[in-house]
Write the structure tokens for this entry.
Amino acid sequence: MLKSVLPMPIGASLTEEGTFFRVWAPDRRHVKVLLDEPVALEPEGNGYFSALVPGVVAGTRYAFQLDDEDGQWADPASRFQPEGPEGPSEVSDPAFPWTDADWLGLSRRGQVVYEMHVGTFTPEGTWAAAAEHLPRLADLGITVIEMMPVADFFGRFGWGYDGVNLFAPTRLYGRPDDLRRFIDRAHRLGMGVILDVVYNHIGPRGNPLPAFTQRYFTDRYECEWGEAINFDGPDAAPVREYFIQNAAYWIREFHFDGLRLDATQSIFCARTPHVIAEIVQAARDAAHPRQCLIVAENEPQDAALLADPAEGGQGIDAVWNDDFHHSAMVAATGRNPAYYSDHRGTAQEFISAAKHGWLYQGQNYAHQGKRRGEPVLNQPPEAFVTYLQNHDQVANTGSGRRIDRRTSPARLRALTGLMLLMPGTPMLFQGQEFAASTPFFYFADMGKELRGPIANGRAEFLKQFPALATVQMQDRLAPPDEPDTFVNSRLNWAEWDKHVEAVALHRDLLALRRTDPVLAAQGAQGLDGAVLEQGSFLLRFGRGREVRLLLVNLGRDLHKASLPEPLLAPPLGCRWQLAWSSEDPSYGGSGTPEPEIDGAWTLPAEAAVLMAPMVKEERRASGLP
């Protein structure tokens, strides 16, 4: 049959003869596609309806009528919604003059991720405008753009996590080919692009799926953002196919280099294989022969995500590491309310994060009153995405304040040095690289009916932070649906040239990470660490003479005539030499003398320094080096 050779199981697919329309509507008796004249789709069985309509070309707008009822519905697999979710769909031609034939994709090791929200990345809020800034990100050392969700959603603005047209790049950022041009240009600059996708719920307004069938959803599970998706109940096969093919679609038709799966703990599935494993495999198949990077968010910290599918796992490449973020924020601010309460920001927490990834791998987690996490001690450092900021955590301050507004410049430089030099997969949030002063708020434009519930729900969520539960702060929360809340979250790119110290800090650190052979090995040649004093610690990379020593002091000035810690000892025949310091004046620091002089150590307060061994000029009497 024709449908067997089409790229997607449902939707509108261009052919030489016209356009083939196909939908899954098992609870409907009749389906028509509304063009210049209505055309009835023929029932195939198993709830599918289809028809090949001659003469329908790219750019044609259409909608579906169900059981001769009044009203019309967007295609559940629409590739473009020019007027938004409640308007007609548009037949889209995926053909594009790609120039990235030599692009090989993304491996897991060696990546530096940059989280981007297209709507606030530039004043224009478009893919075309965002693409103009790609050269500076490539020059900075970014290797992966992680694009926040772009599936079309209701309203004039939003984060994207309430998408309803999962195959349609939102009209708010441009047309589908604008997205293709963005990715093509990123590839020419040596950067990959992965897409944040939401497979745990559908947005609350503009969702066409229930009109075709409620079988996409299930009440067997509770999802905090809406109805759970039916991945394991009756009639789950077409539902699984819908989402699995969605993952493949973004990679096949737009050349995305992978995905970031949102809140995977709410992708409920009791079947084997887990639907996540099938999504991952479909993404890899679509990318082949290019390499594909799959990242996941998972608050409970389930080990199965990273496990090999052959062993019952889901085959994810890397997971977000909230533990590192939480420890860093406590160290930066001295505060640990709400979900920060099980973190202390201690030296040992940072050492453990560098060596083992997640800090909670099955221990009791008092904030939730239960154990959290599962053992992942066998995973490499690059399996954990570390960050000081992301969209959630900046917005969860209530005021949208970034980390540089909540700690001292010196302490932030030290933490930045730690994150960008330690093993792992570091991630920057847009604007972090130039110390953007603009906030990043939670914003969502869902119309008058949902204005109150969304604002109240957001306010209630933030009450877990005692300071944000006060009347004074609740009254100051930016209304999610106000245009100013969205507009004020836009980056001001004039600050890139003004905040040269922050840009230099990030550029130098990423160059070190990329070009220093010991740091670039990401702990594969050996990694250890030790606490020096409260708030100060070291990480030692490598073996033999090929070692580096990263010293981090988040406390006061540290002066020690001696330190009984063998990891401080230089390789035989060598002495330590300062290779980098967060207190370099070019970053706004106060300067750093050599930390080790005649065996005594001096570490400035709120600083990080990198030491490399240098062969001593004198020779020992024994003749040994």
In short: The CA atoms of residues 249 and 483 lie 32 Å apart.
